[in-house]
Every structure is written in structure tokens, then in C-alpha cells.
Amino acid sequence: MKNYFLITLSVLLASCQLNELxxxxxxxxxLNTNLYHxxxxxxxGFERYLEQGGASSTDEMGDYISxxxxxxxxxxxxxxxKMSGFACSALAAKNALGEAVTGRNYDWDPxxxxxxxxxxxxGYASISTANLDFLGFGDAYDPMNGIINQYKAxxxxxxxxxxxxxxxxxVADLMAGDDESTNxxxxxxxxxxxxxxxxxxxxxxADVDExxxxxxxxxxxxxxGRAHHLFVxxxxxxxxxxxxxxNKMIVTESRVLNNHxxxxxxxxxxxxxxxxxxxxxxxxAYSEHxxxxxxxxxxxxxxxxxxxxxxxxxxGTQWTIVYNQQQxxxxxxxxxxxxxxxxxxxxxxxxxxxxx
Length: 356
Fold this sequence. Notes:
By secondary structure, this protein is α+β, with helices and mostly antiparallel strands. Helices cover 22% and strands 32% of the residues. The chain has eight helices and 20 strands. It has a nine-stranded mixed β-sheet. A seven-stranded antiparallel β-sheet has the order 16-5-6-17-18-19-20, with helices on one face. Strands 1-4 form a two-stranded antiparallel sheet. The longest helix has 16 residues, at 273-288. The chain is globular.
């Protein structure tokens, strides 16, 4: 299952080595096969993007990114989304110390992923994850291959799939289970797309309440022409599912989210058998631990709910994350490999790589 923001590029090197994004590009490094990390000590023009009204489509957002990142030599971004199966999962709990912990599986086709440490001048520092295939640079794109490709990687700041900020707010995008597209049209509000909304929340919301208030001030527009719902949890232990039905935002309190609707208007509509299997697995783990789960127990639950390539028509779980929301940390497992983990902290440049 592939989801491309197809871009026709005529990229000039110009002066990218001399600006902050050029400096960010130099920080790209490979952690594992097709898994990369970058540090962006800025917001890659995201605040300006919001100030000029956001975008009502991925095409419009692509135009802005292309213009901002290279001053014009990028070609016009065109969106040609392609979709097949999916079975993402999320679960929120607390550990024995009372700290909020959230687990997240990202289930998709095999892809290249970029872990982004973003430290904006005006907003909260965060750790987030982008699927680099969404940027449409082509199957051969390698963010390590030359300064131009490193520089282009900074565009990923606009399309996070999930993340945590230094205040402990976690946001994750999951497919809701049908093809209803959201396109709100209140002329008094600026516009936002699904993935750029995640960046908005990571940069500017400290908890669930602030996140919901922010979302209400924007017109939401679905990426890739499909229904999305967001799992939002905070360091206080609150977690909600945010959905859009008939262009209305609906919030449901929940500890778990998969790929079927939770709101009463569409409750139970989903994407297939795996979504129910994974929800049952996560709820069982939560119940067995009475809602008190260590990081290892959360990882156990997420691995038990992982999608395997042998049981689906796509690549299965690409990455698993366990967040500690008091620490502002994100511990990654790549391609269902429990033996190696990568831990990053939103509020600092400390990282821990562990091999069991």
C-alpha cells in the first residue's frame, strides 16, 4: 500500500548549505536499513505556513513546501494517493509510578522512515516519525545520498504520522476504516491537512484539552482522500479518539484505537478482521495488567498486536513505539525486531540504542 505525494522536481543546490535547513540536512543519519534520523533546529517554515492560512489539500501544502524549502526551483507537488490494507494500533495506560505510557504500531507497506527531532523557535520540541515515501521523491530516494537529498528530507517535518512533544502530548494518525473524506469549509478558519495537523499539535498543544481546542480552530481536510482518526493522549493520562463524520469533529474518550470508528454515528465501521483482532489483543493486555503497564509490558502488548506480512496484503507493522509521557521519550522498534530499540527524548538530544 503506497501513498505518494508525487513531486516533479528540478532542484537547485542554491544556498541550502548556508541556511538552517541546510544545516539540518547535514544531521541525517541511518539508524537501520531504511530508518533514518534528523535534527531540525527550527520549524522548516511551518509557523509561516500556518500564518498564511495553511492548506486545504496536499497539493496546496506541497506548493508551499516546494516554494519555501528552495525558493522556487522545486516543481509543483501533485497528489496521486494509492491505498490498500492497514491495521494500525494504539493503547494508553500508566506505569507503576503513575506515569502515562502510550504504545503505537504503524502498519503499512515496506517504506523508508525518518525520525525527526524538531526544536522550533516558537513551540514545543518533539520527536516524530514520517513515512518518507509520502514525500514522493521516488523509490530510489535515499536521504543519505548527497546534500540535496539530505536537504529535501527536511520536508518531512510537515507529514508526521505520530509523535510526542516535550510536554508529553502524543498524537498518532490511524485510518478510520472507510473512504469518507473530510473537507470543512468555514470561511472564518484557516485550513489544515491530517498530517500537518499532527505537526500543529506537537508544536503548540501541551495536553489533550489544548489539542482539541486547536483542532476546532481549523478546517480539517483529509490526506489521501480517506477517513482518518487521531489518537491523542497526554502526560495527565487522558486519551481520546478524534474523528470526523459529515465534516463534524467528534471526540470519544478511549484507551485504545485501531482501524474502526468509535463514535456513535459510525461505531464499528472498520477496515477488516485484523482491526478487531488487534483491539481485542490490546484490551486483554490492558485488563490483565489492570491498566498498570511498564514500558516492557506495553511493548509486549504492541508486539502481540503487530501485523505480520503473512496475515495481510501489505508489509505489516513497520515501526512500534512506546512513549513515556513524563519523560517525553519515544522508544522505537523497527520492523518487529524486539532485540534492538532506539530511544529519543523530545526535550534533549540524548538518545539510547539498546541491543538485547
